[in-house]
Amino acid sequence: MIHRKASHRSPDFTWLALAICLLIIFCTLLRAGVHAGPSELPQDRGISGLWQSLERLPVVASALHTTAHPDDEDTGLLVYLSRRVHARTSLLSATRGEGGQSIIGPETGPAMGLVRSGELLASAQYYGVDVFFTRAYEFGYSKTAEETLAKWGREETLADFVRVIRQTRPDVIITRFDGSPVGHGHHQAAGLLTREAFRAAADPSRFPEQLAAGLRPWQAKKLYWGGRGLFGPPAETWNVKINIGQFDAVLGQTYHEMGIEGLSKQRSQGVAAIIPRRGPLEVSFTRLDSVIQTPEKESGLYDGIDTTITGIASRIGAEADSVPELTTALGEIQRHALAALAAFAPRQPEAAARPVLAGLKRLRQLISAVEITPLKDETKHELLFLLRRKEQDFADAARRALQLEFDVRASDDTVIPGQQFTVTAQVYNHGREAVEPTALNLSAPSGWQVALTKGQLKRLSAGEHVSLEFKVTVAADAPYTQPYWYLNAETDNRYELRSEQWQTWPFEPPVVVGRLTCRVHDTTFDLSAPIRAPELDRLQGVLWRDVQVVPAVSVKLTPTLAIVPLSPKPQERQWRVTVVNHAPSQVEGTVQLHAPSGWRVTPPALPFRCARQKESATLAFRVTIPAGHEPQQTSLKAVARVNGQAYSSWYQAISYPDIWTRHLYHPAECRVRIFDIKVAPNLTVGYIPGPQDEIPEALRQLGVTVRLLEADELAFGDLQQFDCIIAGVRAYEFRNDLTQHNQRLLDYVREGGVFIVQYNTSRAWDPGQYAPYPAKMVGNERITVEESPVEILAPEHPVFNRPNKITTADFDGWVQERGLYFWTQWDERYRSLLAGHDPGESPQKGGWLEATYGKGLYVYTAYAWFRQLPAGVPGAYRLFANLISLPKTRS
């Protein structure tokens, strides 16, 4: 029997209760790739995966670990909880890590949040956990919890912490941070919110809108603080110690080693090169709060909590008597779980199938009985929550014991509204037991059409498989696939939601999911798999891509930021529009550029034609900007029209190989900043880019000739041809050729050149080795408040006078921060040019220093030009224009 769509909903459950059930399935797919085929870890396949699933059967334990950002998590602890204790483990990160910097790509802001969300999901496969996020945006470094909570919104973010606790209903919560002034403000805030949410989640008067939508109050039993690293509790305050250095023969490594392996997937953070410590490794935890009686020193995190299946009865107290068969049924299910473990045989995995299926059948009978039993709403919710979670565990163990594989593949990874594409669903029986698939359907959004075109289900004997092919037609009005969360404005510090249904999830569920029902020994169980499309890459192999709905054409206008100086004469600029065809057939139409009133666009419109999918066309427009403008910000917009429909956006494809792909949409728009700015004429700049470096393009906006310097030029080239040379942010960390040829650059300065070095981190760069005179950078001195006052220490200096007259107004409107990684000590031959400080701190003068060296000038500047220039901050542009003009203005 073939079904297109199925819906199972208990009459007394709200839509959110259904969403929570879907969340269980979705998080299972994300966490372990249980039915997702291509992305399943080696540790979760075959006998290793089966044994872990069997060990999980008799355990009813849960945990929540809270952090501030991706990479904060205690990796070994998470692996220990999920793969040793076999607790249902969740990880809540307050932010998606948007304020970080990537060493592997150009993404910033929300795009960086997408990268790090995906990386954390990749890590989570190793940890064996479900991942959740709040709406908080990582706005940059903060030194205090007060600033952080003011920007995030304390109540709004606390509501998200409470929501996750009510969604996951953990027995214990382990916070990475305790809320004290240790670490930066985001860490402090995450600790404070966790401590408050521990009790608030159980209070029905807190955030009652969550209860109205279907969630229920929840009181976790204990709250701990601790873990490995800098932010753990003092050794003398521990209540629990855990050895995460214990070797696990099933995994073939220790929990710490597997955790570090998972952490290494967060490549944008530069944490891939960590060698895990081997041997015993104890981590300590301090109990911050508890609602149960426990001794001062505990043997484990679950002391005082019954984590057996039979212990479920004690969790609902006296009301257990209202379900006459509860105690008996739970005992039978527990025995089936233990029997499955006892039946395990590495070369006969199907031997465990019969007790697993018997346990699953008994579980279903108990669930049906509980659904019609007159229990209190809170009790029924808790009981069904636990039983349905355990039902998922038994179904997973059945699939593994029977060695079933369910794979759903699409013919295209990007589809447009109205398009038809092919989906092939395959079921493989790798085991010895016969399996009868009874239903296979594709769950698609409303308005989509699914039709079976080839194949039919059949009973599968040992070694057999069956293949079904579907034609899927995307709804004509299907929305584009994009994150459900977004920023209203670049200056916002909290996301808005397109759909509250998926709040706290990493992403929305896959657009189409295959669902398979099988029957073995008179018991049915379900498998799920998201559709994915294979991409064949000759270097990387087969990459699996999520299917995304995209527009028929995307339209991108470049540049996306234009800096226009005030001028008494008209100015002419060129903009380019790139149109990409995503339709499976030819598209043609016209493109127009919409400019402010009085601006002239030549030509008014241009035709384009893209003959095939993924083909693009680039069109150039000349724009004449009239004279006499006042300082202002305006914009240009590009629009493509195809068959009467307008398209005015493009998407940024962000993917993590073999895990996920997501699209972040941007308008086909260019922000134009018009203000008074000058730069020395005919400048030629040599630029040594660091990761994520957008400054070369910013300099070209000023009419500066910029040439990117590669290794050969640093080693052998004529450096004297450049008016100045600039080392990009963190270039010394990631350009070995720069460190190797640093002396050539100092020689360039000695002969009269100007060398400008932007910030590098203290953990990877010692200025005393590379600067011309002694200097030190200890720690991470920075100015985080972008509105903080700045003092010009040398007002007579050319850099503050020529060609732009700099005033304190030029420090208005900065974004995210003033600067970072200031020098802390320096030789008297350096001269400090600026001073600033965060509220309540002493002035910091190590953010912009210069020294005469021979005939030339060496400059270290830790001010955040890499954030200000791409953001189009006028004052920062004027300052940087003066800085690069020094070769011609300093004498």
Characterization of this structure:
The chain is globular. A seven-stranded mixed beta sheet has the order 3-2-1-4-5-9-6, sandwiched between helices. By secondary structure, the protein is an alpha+beta fold.
Helical content, roughly? 25-40%
**Parts with pLDDT < 50 across at least 5 consecutive residues:** 1-38
**Rg of Cα set:** 30 Å
What's the count of strands? 47
Average pLDDT taken over every residue:
93
End-to-end CA span:
86 Å
Q: How would you sum up the global shape?
A: globular
Structural class: alpha+beta
SS strand fraction: 25-35%
Biggest sheet: strand arrangement: 3-2-1-4-5-9-6
Q: What can be said about the biggest beta sheet? A: 7 strands, mixed
Number of DSSP helical runs = 22
Indicate the topology:
Blueprint: H1 15-32, H2 46-56, E1 62-67, H3 75-85, E2 88-93, H4 109-127, E3 130-133, H5 145-152, H6 154-168, E4 172-175, H7 185-200, H8 208-212, E5 222-226, E6 240-243, E7 247-248, E8 253-254, H9 255-263, E9 282-290, H10 312-315, H11 326-343, H12 353-372, H13 377-402, E10 404-410, E11 414-415, E12 420-429, E13 436-443, E14 449-454, E15 465-473, E16 485-486, E17 496-497, E18 513-520, E19 523-530, E20 532-537, E21 541-546, E22 548-549, E23 553-558, E24 561-565, E25 571-581, E26 587-594, E27 600-602, E28 605-610, E29 616-625, E30 632-642, E31 645-647, E32 649-656, E33 660-667, E34 669-675, E35 684-688, H14 695-701, E36 705-708, H15 711-716, E37 724-727, H16 731-734, H17 736-740, H18 742-750, E38 754-758, H19 767-770, E39 775-776, E40 782-783, E41 790-792, E42 819-820, E43 825-826, E44 831-832, E45 834-836, E46 848-853, E47 856-861, H20 865-868, H21 874-884, H22 886-889
Parallel strand pairs: 1-2, 1-4, 2-3, 4-5, 11-22, 24-34, 35-36, 35-37, 37-38, 38-47
Antiparallel strand pairs: 5-9, 6-9, 7-8, 10-12, 12-15, 13-18, 14-15, 16-17, 18-19, 20-21, 23-25, 25-29, 26-28, 26-30, 27-29, 30-31, 30-34, 32-33, 39-43, 40-42, 41-45, 44-46, 46-47
Helix pairs in contact: 2-13, 3-9, 4-9, 5-7, 6-7, 11-12, 12-13
